[in-house]
Amino acid sequence: MPIPKPHYSASWIYLLLAVVLEAAGTIYMKLSDGFTKIIPSILMLIFYGISFVFLNLAIKKLDVSVAYSIFSGLGIALVTIGGIFFFKDPITVFRLTAISLIIIGVIVLNFTGLSH
User: Fold this and answer.
1) Where along the chain do its domains lie?
2) What is the DSSP string of the chain?
3) From first to last of its 116 residues, what are the pLDDT tens digits of the chain?
């Protein structure tokens, strides 16, 4: 039995889940310490795997260019924020400006994909 195609709004939920799981995978990549810590390494692979499952479901209905740019852009922003909170990465005006520009770019690109 084939998997039913997701409804358009479900695709956005799938995409957001993919972004959050990808960011979690990246946080666990850092925690894995170059694959020297087994539990974070396994969690990293699990989060990345599930993330790509949800991204695959999302692009069934969403334009791949819009979905992947949102996936990448918001993922970068979440990982940067996670780095600041979890790993004490420095907060700089340059970082905050860059994150803001990424988010603005994702929003603008999102408006180009609303022709469905």
Assistant:
1) 8-112
2) -PPPPPPHHHHHHHHHHHHHHHHHHHHHHHHTTTTTSHHHHHHHHHHHHHHHHHHHHHTTTS-HHHHHHHHHHHHHHHHHHHHHHHS-PPP-HHHHHHHHHHHHHHHHHHHHTTT-
3) 566 665 678 999 999 999 999 999 999 999 999 999 999 999 999 999 999 999 999 999 998 988 998 899 899 989 999 999 999 999 999 989 988 898 888 888 777 755 54
